[in-house]
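Q: Predict the bound structure with zinc ion.
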Amino acid sequence: MTAMTNAAPDPRSPFVFSTLELERRAGSVRRVQRDIPTPTGFGTDMIVVPVDSTLRLEARLESVVEGVVFTGVVQARVHGECGRCLREINDELAVDICELYAFPDSTTDQTTDADEVSRLRDERIDTEPVIRDAVLLALPTTPLCRQDCPGLCAGCGEQVDQLPADHCHEESDIRWAALQELLDSRTGDTAGGAATGSTVLSPSGEQEN
Ligand SMILES: [Zn+2]
Ligand SMILES: [Zn+2]
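A: Predicted complex:
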């Protein structure tokens, strides 16, 4: 899974790592740590890694026969909105990354497409597409402030967990109101029933039949 393009990695990008110091010998390792300002596009409508917040990357580059394996962890701050109650969400995310960047002249290079396996170009790897994909995959499709968030009251739109346990809206329920009107018209006695704007109250106890 990768969104690698054919463009050569831009050495000015903080997501680009040089593999020059890595000896081209299987087993050779280089450790890297970098704080990267988050570019746009790291998120969805509901939840994002805020632009310019820090993506903390700790990783290792390991030389293998076919190329360089990039493994590590990205830590990010996420900001969003609960999909049920619209409360603000501020959280942290840690995502594992593992990606092979194939050497230009390797068997992998000759037998796969660049959109299947990432490529090492000009002795550099661009980790942005891989990190972006991993972060987007790790973000929830419906973010919740907590797993059992009860959401909003259908009657008044208030957060249910902020309302008293016996909170309800008899009048807002149209079906209930219709039933009540029917009962009222049959008995002609609305005493004790919920009064609605269209109901004319008759004197209590009076029967009309
Ligand atoms: Zn919620
Ligand atoms: Zn309500």
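A: The mean pLDDT is 85.
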